[in-house]
Structures are given as structure tokens and as C-alpha cells.
Amino acid sequence: MALTDEIQTLTKAFTGLGVDERSLVTILGKWKPEERQSFRKGNPNFFKEDERHFERCHEDYVKRLEQEFMRFKKAIVLWTMHPWERDARMAKKAIKKGPEAYAVLVEIACSRSSEELLGARRAYHSLFEHSIEEDTSRYIKGSERKLLVALVSAYRYEGSKVEEDHAKSEAKALANAIKNSDKKKLLEDDEVVRILATRSKPHIQAVYKQYKQISDKNLDEDLEVALILKETVQCLCSPEKYYTKVLDEALKNGTNQKIRKALTRVIVTQADADMKNIREEFQTKYGVALSKKIEDTACGSYKDFLVNLVARGN
Amino acid sequence: MATLITPSHFSAIEDAEALQKAFKGWGTDEKAVIRILGYRNAVQRKQIREAYENVFQEDVVKRLESELSGDFEKAVYRWILDPADRDAVLANVAIRKSECDFKVLIELSCVLSPEELLAVKRAYQNRYKRSLEEDVASHTAGDLRKLLVALVSAYRYNGEEINARLANSEADILHEAIKDKAYNSDEVIRILTTRSKAQLNATFNRYREDHKLSITKNLLGESAASDFQKALHTTIRCISDPHKYYAKVLRDGIKRIGTDEDDLTRVIVTRAEKDLKDIKDIYYKKNSVSLDDAVAKEISGDYKAFLLALLGKQD
């Protein structure tokens, strides 16, 4: 390979999600100091000319590189963990992080089964010597608190029996709350929280259907004014749609680290759960296979590992 | 300690056959029913139910429902169920009363261990095809709903560790709320419904040290207490001193004999295998009469005989 090609390959090896270890080894492994200097000079994204005459790393070059190297490690650590511990640790991090991470709490509380959520609560006891609801209510302050505490405390009925008249009246109640949401905030409405946090998933899906019938609209979209409510309904009713959207965001170019992190989280947590549905939904919505998108955007062992997980559920 | 006495020799099949004999013909031999069921623990009762089903292809619980009546029937029905299933039934009865009998739900969520509460919730889902939380939520409103749903949803950490600094700051928070009569504050509900029992008891102790008055005395004050205040009071008592709490419920229950025996039945049936002896001791200290004597005086018939059996009367 000519030097320019090698430089291009090496740049690419650092630019995706994860790092292309093989290229790094074969190229960097043989490059002499002059070649490495060419690389630095030819990469204004990573290096800039310092006044004292050396090619100096951009501030976030090292940080970014470390993040990309870590991606594979984090995926493996997360994957080998017991799912309960995984969810408990993610929940703890999310509680500490604040509003930007509330969606993670919603994912755990709403897309897991009742027994999986219970397991996560048990693991939380072991790991942190407090209960998840204790920490959620203690550290979360804003208007989302009521909803989040109720969601993480839920132990929903998992049978399929649904009382249609209750579903109908609750759809009406939600429609009312949405209509009056300028007078009373949706997150402050006890009925909204009660319905979403205590009813079984089949029941809420029935409410979704009834809502469509009475208002001709989609419940999750109408709840958009409080984004967390929209995410709650999506995770409860159609998690594959929710996760597909998150994955698409994560695989876009130029997104920030927080959004990119979702790629590992979603694939690792869903690999044994809903992966088949997510694959199908992704193909339908975006017209390209999820694995292809990952092949194009990620690199190295990280990419190979994710593609492997995505192929599950066949 | 339990009050229930069980025999050294036990055969589920013999008991099932003896029960069948008690049902045969006109009327029922209630004494035989008491003699058997009144002296069997939960494991044995389960084996009797299974043996009866195997030998006679019939559900002995349904049979008892049809053979017995009144308060006696209610008591035996509750007694023969599995403890978790029984508590689920009691919770459902409490929820469906025209005014939710919230103390039953509070007892359930505060006296039972976290694992026992979980077992009740599973039994409830199994029996009613809905979750306990959704039924509590849809049958209550306002502050009471906030408190009760949080209590039944809780899966408290069950370790013994306590954080003294936290106990201090949270005792202060509770004190401020009570002083300002802001009983329904989010902080009060958060503390009482999420902290571990060990932590809460440390907090209550700290409260008493700092303010020379126990939190429960401080809470009820002089003026008439609202339902919500009473619920908070019950919550704290169930967590800090369940024996004393149950003794009071029994005392009030005995006074209400002739009108409503639910409390009396519930406490005796649910605690006979657990700590009814400790509760009796406190009852005696507070009332100068033994619970057995009080029951014997106020109640009659098979209902009385059955309760006395559970209270430990030698056969």
C-alpha cells in the first residue's frame, strides 16, 4: 500500500465506532518515525501545528481514542455480566447522571419483563445496599420523579387478560389529561402516572388501541410534550420501534458520545430479547439491514462483536 | 413466638379422611374440623388439601365453604389457605370495601418481610389476574393512594446497615413536616416507603432522642386525625413495633364484636404461626386480661372454639 492509502486506512481505523485493530497493528507496526510524522501532519482533525514546532494532539484526540478503544471492552464486560447486575449498574449510573440519562431508566423499567426488573432490583440491593426506588426517589428531583419512582417499583401482571371497559375508560382519561395538559402538566397528573406505572403491558396496549379509536391519533405521539411519557409508552407497547429509533440515532455521523453509547447498550441488552423484531423493524423503517449499517459505521473487534449479537434470534 | 400447637404424629391422609367423615351426612361435625385444622401448620394444611384432592377428587376448601357458615367459616377459610394466598385474599377484601380498609394493606407491606410481600403479590396476580398495585391504585385516590401504592410496590433493602447521618437528617425532615402539618409531603412519603426497616427504626429512634417524644405520639396530636394521618401512624407503628400494633387492633376488634369480626379473625389467623404469643403478652400487659379470656368472654360457638385453638388452647 502507498503511504497515502495507509494514512487513509489508519484515519478510518480511528474514526468509526470502535477501532480497527488489524489495520493499526499492520500499519503502525511497521511505520518508521517519518511515516508516523506524515500521518500527524496529514491529519488536521487529530493534530495541529504547535508554535514550538511539533504536531500536537487536539485536546479531545486522546480522549476520543480512549473512548473508541474502550468500546469493545465495555461491550464485553456488559455482555458477560448477569443481566440483573447489568441493569442494576446501568440504573445506578443513570440515577447519578440526571435528566439526560432518564431514558435508560425507562428502558429498564418498561422493556424488561416483570421478573427481569425484579431481578435487577435484587441485584441493586446486593450491589448498592439500597433499593432502586430508594435511590430514585432520593436523587431525582424534577417533574419526572413521580413517574420514574413508580416505573422502577412496578411488578406488573404478566398475563394476557385485559378488561376492555377499563382500557376504554382509561384511554378516555388519558385523552382528557392530554387535552388539559396546558393547565395541568401531564407528569403531575396522578391518573397518567397510575395508568402507565401499574397496568399490565397487554392492558396498556389495549388502551393504546382504544385511544386510537376515540381520537384517531397515536398515544405516544400525543404525549410528546413530556418526552419521557412518550418513551414510556413506546417501551411498553412497541419496544422494537423505540430501540430502532435509538439505534438509528447512534449510527448517524457526528453524534455525541452519549448517543453513540446507546449502540452498545441497546444491542447487548436486546441480543437475547427482542433482536429479531428490532432487525425486522430497522429493515422496514430504514430500508437497510441493521448489520449492514453497523458494518459501515463501526470497525474492528467492536464491529465484529456487535454484528455477531445482531444476528441472534434467527 | 407462635401460639399454634401441632401434634407429634401427622398423617395428611388420616386427616383428609377424618375431614370427609366430618362432612358426611346431615350437618357437619364442626368440633372435628377444629380438632384437626386448628392444630396444623401451613405445610401440613397444604398436604391435607392435596391428600383430600387425591383421595376424594374434591377441593376441601370449597367443601368447607359450603359446610360451614358465618364467622367460623370465614376464619377457617382464611386459615386453610397458603399464607401468601390468604394475604392476597385479605388485601382484595380490604380494597373492595366501600372505604378501603387501608390498615390491612399497611400491615401487609410493613410487617411482612420484602420476600413475603413479594410472595403475596405473586399470589394476588395468580388469583385475580391483576397486580396488587393496580388494584390499590385504581381503588384509592389522593394522598392515601400515593402512600399505599408506594408501600405495596416497595421492595425494601433488607440489610441491617444504617447510616447515622441519614437517620439524623431524615428525622429532622419528618419532624419539620409534622410541625408544619405537611404530612403528605413527598419527602415524608419517600422516607417511609423506600428506606429499609433498619434505617427507618434508626430514624425513629433518633427522632425520639432529639425531640423527647416518639414520632407516633407527635403525629396524632390533639385534633382529630385525618385518614391519611392515621395511615402514616399505622405505617410507623407496623414498622417500629408490630406486636404492640397488633395488640391494639385486637383490643379494638374485641370491642367491636357483634358488628365486625374481620380484624379479630385476621390478626389471629395471620399471626398464630408467627408471633401471636408475643402479641398476647403485650395484650395482657396493656389490658390486665389475657386475650384468650377476652375472646372466650365475648364470642361463642364454633368461632370461639376455633380461635381458642389457634391461640394455643390444649386439645
**Poorly predicted parts of chain A:** none
Give the class of chain A from helix and strand content and strand pairing: mainly alpha
Mean pLDDT of chain A: 94
| H/I helix tally of chain B | 20
Order of helices and strands of chain A: HHHEEHHHHHHHHHHHHHHHH
Instruction: Compute the CA-based radius of gyration of chain B.
Output: 21 Å
Helix content of chain A: over 70%
- Portion in beta strands of chain B: under 5%
User: What is the molecular shape of chain A?
Assistant: elongated
The residue ranges of chain B in which pLDDT falls below 50 over 5 or more consecutive positions are none
According to DSSP, the number of beta strands of chain A is: 2
The amount of helix of chain B comes to over 70%
The major beta sheet of chain A can be summarized as: 2 strands, antiparallel
The strand count of chain B comes to 0
Oligomeric state of the chains present here: heterodimer
Structural features, described:
- The complex is a heterodimer of chains A (314) and B (315).
- Chain A is built from 19 helices and 2 strands.
- Chain A has helices spanning 3-15, 21-28, 33-41, 59-80, 83-97, 102-111, 114-128, 132-139, 145-152, 164-179, 190-198, 201-215, 219-222, 227-237, 239-250, 257-270, 275-286, 290-297, 300-310; strands at residues 47-49, 55-57.
- In chain A, strands 1-2 form a two-stranded antiparallel sheet.
- In chain A, helix 4 (59-80) packs parallel to helix 16, helix 14 packs across helix 15 and helix 18 runs antiparallel to helix 19 (300-310).
- The longest helix of chain A has 22 residues, at 59-80.
- By secondary structure, chain B is mostly helical.
- Helix content of chain B is 72%, strand content 0%.
- Chain B is built from 20 helices and no strands.
- The longest helix of chain B has 16 residues, at 164-179.
- The model of chain B has no long low-confidence stretch (mean pLDDT 94).
- Classes of the chains: A mainly alpha (314), B mainly alpha (315).
- The A-B interface holds A 118, 121-122, 125, 129-134, 137-138, 145, 149-150, 153-159, 161, 166, 190, 194, 198-200 and B 118, 121, 125, 129-131, 133-134, 137-138, 141-142, 145-146, 149-150, 153-159, 161, 186, 190, 193-196.
